Amino acid sequence: MLVDFMRKNPHARPSQPVVMEPLRVDSWDQDSQPKLAWLGHSAVVLQLDGTTLLLDPMFGRAPSPFPVFSRKRYSGKLPFDIGQLPPVDVVLLSHDHYDHLDYGSIVRLKDKVKRFIVPLGVSRHLIRWGVDPANIEEHDWWDEFDCEGLRLACTPARHFSGRSLTDRDATLWCSWVVKGHSANLFFSGDSGYGPHFQEIGAKYGPFDLTLMECGQYDERWAAIHMFPEQTVQAHLDVRGKVMIPIHWGAFTLALHDWTDPIERVVRAGSEQHITISTPKIGETVRIKGETYPIMPWWRHEIL
Any stretches that span the bilayer, and where are they (predicted)? Predict the structure, then answer.
C-alpha cells in the first residue's frame, strides 16, 4: 500500500482550485424553508426549523497532524470566513479522525457554538482544546434526544477512530439522524456498507435528504469506506429520497482519481433511478425545494 501511495497519479487531485460559490448564510433567514450548503469533504452547514447546525466542520488546510507536510485542500480556501458565520446552535461530530475533527476549526468555532454533540469519548479532545464541558453532550448508538427543537438520534456506522498510534478505537464513531418538523435528514459520517443502513431506514426513514459518504475507498479498506455503488444502495436502504454525496471534492486520501467517486455514484444512481444532487462547494440547497443542483461542475475542472 505504501508503494502504491508513492506512485504518482496525475488525476489524484484537480490541476487547479475547484470552483466554489460564496456561502450566503446571512440571507438564509429570509424564508423558513430548510436549507444547507456542502462545504467540501463531509462538512455541511444546515438550517432546519430555525436551528443552525454544523456537521463535521473540518475547515483546515489539510487533514493531518502535520498540515505543513500534507497535500492541501483542493479549493485552496473556504467559500466563507469562519469569523463571518452566524451563531451556531449545534455542532454534530461523527468521529475524531483528522478529516472530520480539526483542532484549528474547533478553536475558531468554539465561542460561536451553543452545543457540541459527539459520540462517546470525543469530548476529551474538545475539552483539551478549550470547549466548556457544560456545552458538550456525548451519545451512544441508538440514543434519541431532543435538541434545539429538533429530534436527533446517534446511529451506527462501520468505521473506526483514533488520532495517534496509541488511541485506536478509544472513542466511538457514528452516523446521525436529524429530524425536524419541516424535513428529516440522515448524515452517514464514515462507514463501510452493512446491515445497519437497513436498520436505520426501518426505524427512522424515510429521509427527505441523505448526506452519504462517497470517496476515499479502496479494496484494502472496503470494510470501513463504501464504494460509490454501495453508497447508492445505502441511500436506498435508509429510504432516502434525495442524496448529496459527501466525503469527496476536498482532499486526496485514497488512490483513485479525484472525480471517480462522483462519476461512479451519479452513474449508479441513474441506474437505480434515484435523485442525486451535486451542489458546488458553498452553494445553497433548498431541501424539499422544486429543484436540486445537478450540474456536473467537476467536469469543467478537468478540461
Answer: none
Q: In residues, how long is the chain?
A: 303
Encode pLDDT of 103-133 as tens digits: 999 999 999 999 999 999 999 999 999 999 9
The confidence score (pLDDT) of residue 71 equals 78
124: cell is 476529551
pTM attached to this predicted model: 0.96
**23 touches 54 (CB < 8 A):** no
**In the chain, what are the domains?**
2-302 (3.60.15.10)
